[in-house]
Amino acid sequence: MDNTPLSDALALRATAFAFDAQRGKLPVPGDPHRSPDVVAVARQISELGKLVTDLGDEVLFRAADKDQARHTARVITNFAAAIEPAGEAASALGAVAHQLAFLNQTESLRD
To answer: Which of 75, 79, 96, 106 could form a disulfide with 58 if both were Cys (CB 3.0 to 4.6 A apart)?
Structure first.
């Protein structure tokens, strides 16, 4: 992988598109057409985990390079900045999965 401004910009753009695609799959409160189930939420958590791993790999690849280009520090910062909100989204989805699992377990008690 080369470390040019163009290749780095393309990598950042591809990452942004991947996150936008994931955002489009998130459950929307009150929307009956996009109400979540445990399996769908678990898939979303897994996909977010892969994206976080990809972000970490992008940061590691550039940080470990002994001959960093002038723009590399800014690219590292941009990739690293996306990790926190991705982790927060995964955490929120974990809470949703927990709540949905609880509702599934207690469904028979609601009758």
So the answer is: 79
